[in-house]
Each structure stands twice: as C-alpha cells, then as structure tokens.
From TrEMBL:
The keyword Transcription applies. It comes from Flavobacterium frigidarium. This is AraC family transcriptional regulator. Residues 231-329 form the HTH araC/xylS-type domain. PANTHER family: REGULATORY PROTEIN PCHR. The keyword Transcription applies. Keywords: DNA-binding, Transcription, Transcription regulation. It holds the Pfam family HTH_18. InterPro entries: Homeodomain-like_sf, HTH_AraC, PchR_regulatory_protein, Tscrpt_reg_AraC-type_HTH.
C-alpha cells in the first residue's frame, strides 16, 4: 500500500503538496486549481477552489493503480468536511484502523475534527472514484449568523472527532451534481460555484438538524442496492412520465414490496410514488408549453393525464397560474424578446 501524507494548510499549499506527491500537471484559472494526473500511480483530475469565510471545494475524479492511504494532517485547524461519493467507494478513519467509515456511491459523510487530527482516506486499487468535498473552517467569528458559527453549533463536538455516514439527501445530491456540471469559465463559473456551495452547506445544516433520524431509518430499512434501484426507477419515470405506471408493476421492477417502494420514495424524494409521477408530468408539461406549439389539450393527453381540469388545478398549485396564462406569458416574452 502506498502511504502519502499531506498537510491541509491553505488550498495552494494543499494542491501543490498533492502535485509533488502525484507528479501531475497543475493549472490555475481565477482561484480554481486543476491537477491533471496520468502516472503509474494515479489517473484522473483533482480540482480545488477556495473562497472567503473559510469555504473550500475539492472535486476528485481519480483511479489509483495501487492501494493508497492518503493521510491529511489538520495542522492545527479543525474544519468540517462534507463528502459526497458519486461513484466508487473509499474508507475513512481518524488514524485508527479499527474505526473505519466506508463511504460508497450515493452516500455522504459529515466529518468534523478536533485540532491536530489526522484524517486518513483509503483508496483501493483500480476503483474509479468520483468524490466531492466541501470544507468549512471553524475560525472564530463573533457573528452568530455567519456560516462558520452555524456549522460550529450544528456539527462541532469539542470532546471528540465526529463522523456521520448516511444516504445522500436527493435535493442535496442534485445540487452537488449541478456544482460538478458547471461548465462556464472565469468570473461566472466562480460566482456560480460559490453560490451553490453556500446553498449546499445551508441545506446540510437544515437536514442535519431536522432529518438525520429519518436518514438513519432509511439506512435500516433499505440497502444501498435498493436505493440505487429506486433512483434508477426515478430517472426512468422522469424521462417518460406519460407511461401509465402502477405501484404493483414498479414494485416488481425493483424487487421491493409496494410498502418498501413507497417508503423509499417518501424518504428519498419526500413524495409518494404517485405524487412523484404527477410532479414529473407537470414539469414535462411546463417544458412543452414553453418549447412547443402544442395546445393545452394536446399537452394534457401527451403527458398521461386524462382530465384537463385536474391538470390545470395541479399546474396552478405549482406555478401560481393556469396553463393557459402560463402559455400566454411565454408567448408575450417571445414577442418582446
């Protein structure tokens, strides 16, 4: 196993230390570093960005060609890390192998450390890992409404190190995907990333405060494989919401009981299966109104509804106007554009 030790320090020192250990090509755009790797040890990219208020972001899209133990020394600081594993898997400890946290695809980890702690990440040979990490420093700030203060109140445990591994909240996972998909350059990219990072951290605070007990229930009642099946099913419904789905057929497709399927949808999407289908149909209808010349009746039946009045009622609940009013407003915008 290859052993590598990095000091957390400031983001420049951190990424340069990674470059020196991995022998990659380092580039800089605005305040975003990108390390391109193609060596006998590792392939892929590592991106790192730092902002004011001790807010930093790291994106790993890498595959090690031998087992690697990456030790990150806190160097006196004690930041809170929010880690999101999109694919692959890795392990984390606070330096003691007996207390191992496994972070797999579709899982996230909240890691908070006391001073001078070593975070150790274990990467297995030939496992492609996509991992996003948000770091928030715990510097002293007298403003109780500041991001740092809220993080400290929510996550900081001064007596011991803290780590929580759970299932990714669907809305937070979507924001992380949006963050990784930003393709703008320069100042626009910088502003978009910072805005999304602040939103994600705020959502984590709210989620941890209100809903971690529900997350634990999800871990206990559904396996990661079952959760992945529900997410794949959700994607299929989103792509083709007009299909006449039934709970029985969907349950059979995933291998879950109808009750487990409903429970999974409630915990992942905060909607029942039928409500989720309806929501996807309404969103598809909005796109058709905005982007096609179909009339409202044609749209209603093309997305799987049989009642125009029911469709209008649900549409108005979501968009605060009738479909006809929405279509008129889009046409007016097009004329004045």
């Amino acid at each position: 196993m290859k052993n590598i030790t990095i000091k957390s320090g400031n983001i420049k020192d951190f990424i340069v230390d990674l470059k020196n250990n991995f022998d990659g090509i380092l580039g800089l755009d605005m305040n975003e570093y990108q390390l391109k790797l193609d060596t006998e040890l590792v392939t892929g990219t590592i991106e790192a960005t730092s902002y004011q208020d001790d807010l930093s972001y790291f994106d790993f899209d890498i595959k090690f060609l031998e087992d690697v133990k990456l030790r990150i020394k806190s160097d006196g600081a004690s930041p809170t890390y929010f880690a999101y594993c999109l694919s692959g898997s890795l392990e984390h400890t606070f330096g003691k192998k007996e207390n191992v946290n496994t972070i797999s695809a579709n899982q996230n980890a909240v890691i908070n450390t006391i001073e001078d702690t070593i975070n150790v990440f274990y990467f297995k040979k030939d496992v492609a890992v996509k991992l996003s990490i948000i770091s928030v420093g715990n510097t002293v700030n007298e403003d109780e409404d500041s991001l740092n203060s809220k993080i400290k109140k929510t996550f900081l445990n001064k007596a011991e190190n803290f780590a929580h591994v759970g299932i990714q909240h669907i809305t937070i996972a979507q924001k992380v995907s949006q963050l990784r998909a930003i393709n703008q350059k320069g100042i626009v990219r910088d502003l978009l990333k910072k805005g999304l990072l602040q939103i994600i951290v705020a959502m984590e605070i709210e989620h941890h405060t209100n809903s971690y007990s529900a997350t634990e229930s999800l871990v206990n009642c559904l396996t990661l494989k079952q959760i992945e099946q529900i997410k794949l099913l959700s994607d299929a419904i989103q792509k083709d919401p007009a299909e006449q789905y039934s709970i029985k057929s969907l349950a059979k497709q995933t291998g879950l009981s109808p009750n487990k399927l409903q429970e999974g949808f409630k915990m992942i999407h905060n909607h029942t299966v039928n409500d989720f289908i309806t929501m996807m149909r309404i969103e598809k209808a909005e796109k058709l109104i905005r982007n096609t010349d179909l009339n409202i009746s044609e749209i209603v039946y093309s997305i799987g509804f049989t009642s125009r009045s029911y469709f209008s009622k649900i549409f108005k609940e979501k968009y605060n106007c009738t479909p006809k009013e929405y279509k008129y407003s889009q046409n007016s915008l097009a004329i004045t554009a």
